[in-house]
Amino acid sequence: MYILGLNAYHGDAAAAIFQDSTLIAATEEERIRRIKHWAGLPTEAIRFCLAEAGIRLEQVDLICVSRDPSAKIGQKLRQVLLGGTGPAALWNRARNSFNIKTLKEDIARELGIDARHWNARVQWVEHHRSHLASAFFVSPFEEAALLSVDGMGDFTSTMRATGRGNRIDILDSVSYPHSLGIFYTAFTQLLGFPHYGDEYKVMGLAPYGKPVLTDAVREVIQLKTNGLFELKGQYFQHFTSGVQMSWEGGAPVVGVLYSPAMIRRFGPPRQREEPMTEHHLNLAASVQAVCEEVIFHLATDLHKRSGLPNLCLAGGVAQNSVVNGKLLRHTPFEQVFVPPAGHDAGTSIGSALYALHQVLDQPRPPFQHQAYTGARSDTAAIETLLRQRHLPFERLSDPALFDQVSDCLIGGGVVGWFQGRAEFGPRALGNRSILADPRRSDAKEILNLKIKRRESFRPFAPSILLEAVGDYFEGADRVPFMEKVYPIRPDKRAQLPAVTHVDGTGRLQTVERQDNPRYYGLIEVFFRKTGVPVLLNTSFNENEPIVNTPEHALECFLRTEMDMLVLENIVIRRPA
User: Fold this and answer.
1) 234 near 259, Cβ under 8 Å?
2) CA distance linking residue 94 with residue 250, whole number of Å
3) N or C: which terminus of the chain has fewer CB atoms within 10 Å of its end residue's CB?
4) What's the confidence (pLDDT) of residue 94?
5) What pLDDT digit, counting tens, does each position of 546-559 carry?
């Protein structure tokens, strides 16, 4: 049986394909269309998944979608009757629901087949159930407490549950208009970051300020005795006019979420070119601190109710790696698992897994890391591309490649590293990465000057050999998907200036030989030469989605000033 999982007509549209319980491929539409957070019907991702599976669309037996238009229908109608949704937002939601209902026909039309001759069944899976499934069913836990937190999906912003074996049992949820994701996004907009997905910038900015405004921020959101929370409606536009969202041309756009009351309380919105003031820094720190308090509140109560030692976390707010790294210190949980794609793209996998295990009662397969599920290329195709472009290159064995790349890094060079299958999720994990020497105090400036051209307050991540993590980080364990931030040991911070954030932390990725032998091998050679088992790792892109193909990587290399490009075992050097 072939199962196609989709996140469709929503930001971070994506597709995944399973044969029975085996994941064959998964990718985000943005990687192919080259528009960040692409929203709509992920037709190119579907084509990719079908090609990877070697099947035609007609051979798909089940389509699973991480939406359920009938979910909480009574609460939706009540919100409209109370005047909490404006006409424009109501029309957008109605149009979106119509698109979802005609999804099978839309896919068939786009891929050129007659839907009447395609016998696939459609399974609607509530958005947050898909999130929970995307974390629990790929986790190493036989049983766990489950928490999904994001902006909103199917009229829900937060869902708590327990998972045992191949079953998920829902405990409770928080309904729209109350949302921790909207809370964070509203302040993100107020701080001058208006684009969809900009919340990570506030997380990176927060350590530069002091949380002296937490009492004021706490006025905006209230913790409840049942372990949940509520927003104070006067501070948010969506309580009266709904969330205005569009994606003309594929790029999602969210309307202004903060209200005049929020402006009066916290000051006018920062304009795009306006410099950061101490107030802005302190507000970012305070918003992050209150967000952490809410997550700890949700999780601590969930632990009390479930009595389980393990936590699986998903949803857009689960991309807040600072919170993730603090959960074990601030809650009774003993282990925390966050999947590589905890955001909305991951619901393509989650919807399929929910159908497989919860609906069809299929047993879970053995645990394995599943971060590398995207596009791949072969050496022959890469050589053909480079010859067509009349570019000189050299083909090396792995030992020679690791030797030359490590020497380039040690000499202050910046390397584009492209190998294997692309990562699924927002993090580059050693297959589509830009690498630098973490020991260089000027590495951050070099990267921003040569390639990234991004805000100076945003940190770069360390990739570290798993065996060495205890020597460099406090309280850290396995972090394979770069999903948690931990303190770097004080005696190691001077050794790693390029990846140590202003507060002494790092968003690490632990690298294991079994998961990524070639990336592990490169770090191992760098370690042997320098005594430091760490590389600076940032995503292979320049203000665009992460590169997906050799062509994307080559174009990024040519228009930037990186020193070396590695495409599998092929090396291209920038002329001196």
Assistant:
1) yes
2) 19
3) C
4) 46
5) 999 999 999 999 99
Name every residue whose Cβ is closer than 8 Å to that of residue 10 and which is 6 or more positions away in sequence. Answer: 39, 66, 67, 153, 344
Query: What pTM was estimated for this model as a whole?
Result: 0.95
CA dihedral 98, 99, 103, 109 (to 10 degrees): 120
Q: How many CB atoms lie within 10 A of CB 419?
A: 21
Residue 34 burial (10 A CB sphere; 0-12, 13-18, 19+): middle
Q: How many CA atoms lie within 13 A of 202 on its CB side?
A: 35
Peptide bond into 177 cis (omega under 30): yes
Instruction: Look at residue 248 in the predicted model and tell me its pLDDT.
Output: 83
Vertex 544 angle, CA 538 and 547, to 5°: 65
* Residue 12 and residue 344 in contact, taking contact as beta carbons nearer than 8 Å: yes
Domains of the chain: 2-129 (3.30.420), 140-335 (3.30.420.40), 379-573 (3.90.870.20)
Strand 484-487 relative to strand 570-573: parallel, antiparallel, unpaired? Answer: unpaired
Termini Cα distance of the chain:
54
Task: Decide: residue 218, CB within 10 A, 0-12 exposed, 13-18 middle, 19+ buried.
Answer: middle
